[in-house]
Design a protein that fits this description.
Blueprint (H helix, E strand, L loop, with lengths): L1 E10 L5 H11 L6 E4 L4 E6 H19 L2 E9 L9
Helix pairs in contact: 1-2
Length: about 90
């Protein structure tokens, strides 16, 4: 089963760009997961278990490296066209 998730990271520090870019760059290392980022959030799509495992791994890594951060995630079962624009 496919899963699409939209995730926003809010590092609790003055320099918030570096942790966000670091997180996005790490998401790109997962070959089986599609990623799109806009000014507000990042969307990822892939197999359900792979997306959930990736998010768990990378959110933990972000907390360990950068300290406190808030992650807001929305999930929808199924595959969405991440290139869709209106």
């Amino acid at each position: 089963m496919k899963l699409t998730a939209e995730i926003s990271m809010y590092p609790l520090k003055d320099n918030y760009i570096d942790p966000i870019q670091w997180f996005i760059d790490r998401l790109d290392t997962y070959a089986n997961i599609e990623r799109r980022t806009n000014a507000m959030a990042t969307q990822v799509c892939g197999e359900y278990g792979e997306v959930m495992a990736m998010l768990a791994t990378e959110m933990q890594a972000a907390h360990e490296k950068w300290g406190k951060a808030v992650f807001v995630v929305k999930f929808i079962g199924g595959e969405l066209d991440l290139s869709h624009q209106q």
